[in-house]
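Cysteine synthase 1
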Amino acid sequence: MLRTGITSVSKRSYTTFKPLISAAKIRLNKLSEETGSNIYGKAEFMNPGGSVKDRAALYVVKDAEEKGLIKPGGTVVEGTAGNTGIGLAHVCRAKGYKCIIYMPNTQSQEKIDLLRMLGAEVYPVPAVAFDDPQNYNHQAARHAKSIENAVWTNQFDNRSMALPVPQEKSQGKTQIFLADPPGSVLYSYFKSGGKLTERSGSSITEGIGQGRVTDNLKPDIELIDDALHIPDEDSLEMIYRLLDEEGIYVGASSALNVVAAVKMAQQLGPGKNIVTILCDGAYRYQSRLFSKKWIESKGLTNAIPEHLKKYATLD
Ligand SMILES: Cc1ncc(COP(=O)(O)O)c(C=O)c1O
């Protein structure tokens, strides 16, 4: 999701979210010059677990502790495309909890390897729709129920991880745009005023598309001013451009956000300050994103400009 700032219209506390507000912002110089607006990326890939989801991981565990849902020596169970799991694995090690992760088996090997290295017990399961009882989230929920002193942190419907929204938003100075990949329902949901949840295609981005409108997003939909649908071709090209032009090595969701930031700059006209989130680094996807064979298997070879193909060095 693309945000131009951070706060809450509904009086959520700012102080607890201080790190989120103060995370490093990087000005993307070339894209800023091209658009005539300042485009910044929040460097969430610099977090301890390497992604924006470290924040969510910390808050869902703190929330479970505050509600008495987990006691010392307990187990945290979560369904995740990987990033929240990696954050949870760090938090659990620090706090002495066991960490059990269910994830779709379509996710990159790098994330599975890292989770296991951090001490998590990982169950890659077939990727099936949310309404199927075998969906990774439901399997995580059942596992947590089946053992003593365990909590399913339920990241997608857990309001304790809702982001604060910029104060300027309530004063009409800030606009928030949502950036959505193919295969996700959020673009059509927003554009149809909540009537449609159309879903077509799939995406090379991992973990950011949604097949449903989750509880942690629903109440904040009204804060969104516009939505942008970003094709994979644009996201892949931007991964390579960011590496070449800005010296930044980030994954497909960050690239998707930056493409959206550029489109937003074009839509709003020059002289704006636009902030988006650089969600995570490319390291955890590099066997895919920089593999000629994998890119070809996705039919995306032509998305990479000729002069940037030199970065696709893996077979
Ligand atoms: C880069 C990225 N990957 C994945 C996710 C989804 O979280 P998870 O990996 O835990 O499913 C998000 C959520 O914002 C994200 O920003």
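thats it. The radius of gyration is 19 Å. Residues 87 and 315 are 30 Å apart (CA to CA). bye
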